[in-house]
Specification:
Layout (H helix, E strand, L loop, with lengths): L2 H11 L4 H7 L4 H9 L6 H11 L3 H4 L21 E3 L5 E6 L3 E2 L2 E2 L4 H11 L8 H13 L6
Antiparallel strand pairs: 1-2, 3-4
Length: 147
């Protein structure tokens, strides 16, 4: 879905006119009209306002142009409900809500996360613990948080 369609869908889902939507996101009705026709798109600051005001990630507003993955544990972030938030309420699209909560990381070290994964992740292939831990470590080492 295109950004123009998503913005219109957000507005209509909240039973707002273009004027009312514009007022909530601090722009003119004409700006909203241009967004909905695809003539222009909201700037970065306005995207942040829309995200916060309507509880939707910027990635989703932009039509999910990139697949998000938690940069701590590697979990796909396919739904906004799983994306972490900063203490001010803004989405932090780099992390899941289980790895980053209230402005702080849950796992203080990669070993803490590896211990959690070893205890909670299934092992259908019946791998040795040392092999599983090594696989998880290789995956985690590719993520931004552990580099």
């Amino acid at each position: 879905m295109d950004t123009k369609d998503i913005l219109k869908k957000i507005r209509e889902a909240n039973n707002l006119t273009q004027d009312q939507f514009a007022e909530r996101v601090l722009v003119t009705r004409q700006a909203v009209s241009r967004w909905e026709t695809g003539e222009t798109q909201p700037n970065t600051e306005t995207l942040k306002i829309i995200s916060r005001e309507f509880d939707i990630s910027i990635n989703t507003i932009l039509g999910s142009p990139r697949q998000l993955y938690c940069q701590c544990c590697g979990m796909p972030l396919n739904e906004d409900i799983n994306i972490s938030r900063e203490p001010d309420g803004f989405f932090n699209e780099d992390y899941c809500k289980w790895c980053y909560t209230d402005g702080d990381f849950v796992y203080k070290s990669k070993d803490d996360l590896l211990d959690f994964l070893m205890e909670h992740m299934p092992n259908p292939e019946k791998l040795e613990d040392s092999d599983r831990r090594l696989q998880y470590d290789r995956l985690l080492s590719q993520l931004k948080h552990w580099n």
